[in-house]
């Protein structure tokens, strides 16, 4: 019996895909994306080119599970359809995405 894990084909670009294209290991890709100062400029540029070519987007949920911590901001409002709420949430998402912070919106009904 083989002990290797089978990966489900989701069609999403993975860290392993980036590593393969860049000709480096997955840990090197992870290090280049998380702490770029620990990787040489030449290697980081090679990895960034692979990220761009493949359209890699980090999976924040998987990252949070793997590290047992997450950077998450929640927006809780009485009514998401209230004036300005959807625009505010869209703006929040736009600002948080480059910072690798996930966001959640929730609704708590107002007390009667």
Automatic annotation (TrEMBL):
Q: Identify the taxonomic lineage of the organism of origin.
A: Bacteria, Pseudomonadati, Pseudomonadota, Gammaproteobacteria, Enterobacterales
Domain HTH lacI-type, chain residue ranges per copy: 13-67
CDD domains registered for this protein in UniProt: HTH_LacI (cd01392)
Per UniProt, which keywords does this protein have? Answer: DNA-binding, Transcription, Transcription regulation
What organism does this protein naturally occur in?
A: Enterobacter asburiae
Q: Which InterPro entries match?
A: HTH_LacI, Lambda_DNA-bd_dom_sf
What is this protein called in UniProt? LacI family transcriptional regulator
According to the UniProt entry, its GO molecular function terms are:
DNA-binding transcription factor activity; transcription cis-regulatory region binding
Question: What Pfam family is a match, any one?
Answer: LacI
Superkingdom as given in the UniProt entry = Bacteria
Q: Keyword Transcription regulation: yes or no?
A: yes
